[in-house]
Amino acid sequence: MGRGKIEIKRIENSTNRQVTYSKRRTGIVKKARELTVLCDAEVSLIMFSSTGKLSEYVSPSTTTKKLFDQYQQIAGIDLWNSHYEKMQENLNKLKDINMRLRREIRYRIGDGLDDLSFEELRGLEQDMDGSLKVVRERKYHMITTQTETYRKKLKNLQETHTSLIREFEDRNEDPYYDVSNYDSSLGVENGGSHMFPFRLQPNQLNVQDGARYGFDNLRLA
Questions:
Q1: Residue 54 has pLDDT above 60, yes or no
Q2: Which of 8, 18, 165, 216: CA 20 to 30 A from 173?
Q3: In this entry, which stretches build a coiled coil (predicted)?
């Protein structure tokens, strides 16, 4: 029993449509390859699926561009002319934009102002005043943000310092008392120098106590 004739119309089911395309694409590429081998023909085949996926076959002895150029020569048409014109038009627009931007940059650095009228100069001045306002607002925002950050860091340091002081006090220890050389406070016998522990307040050098105990060049490290 032979296969029934398939009605040629768009397949509505997307899955079936993609499966059919995949099968028939394989078949048409096979036919193009056979035509190239059997008939020594130059074949270029380009296909796009409904999802935009490209499939192509080109005879091994040629290229797609070569076949297009040959087609244009024989058919007497120019496939690239309209595309070239659009590209040239787009290029001219980009050149105009570039020239305008360069001119505005020169104006903003004070170059080429002799060619401007009074109204143009006033407009430029207003634009620069607006730009300056934006820059100042951004600068003040950064200053405020950095100040707030430093304030939070300082607060954290103060809280840490207070916590350490309380910890020393809870252990009945003096946080400002230097005990690093406590053993040396007993002195060195046989006429050696004598070292005595004494209380140092934060950020304050007790010069009188240093002179009293013979430390003429006392410095706080």
A1: yes
A2: 216
A3: 77-104
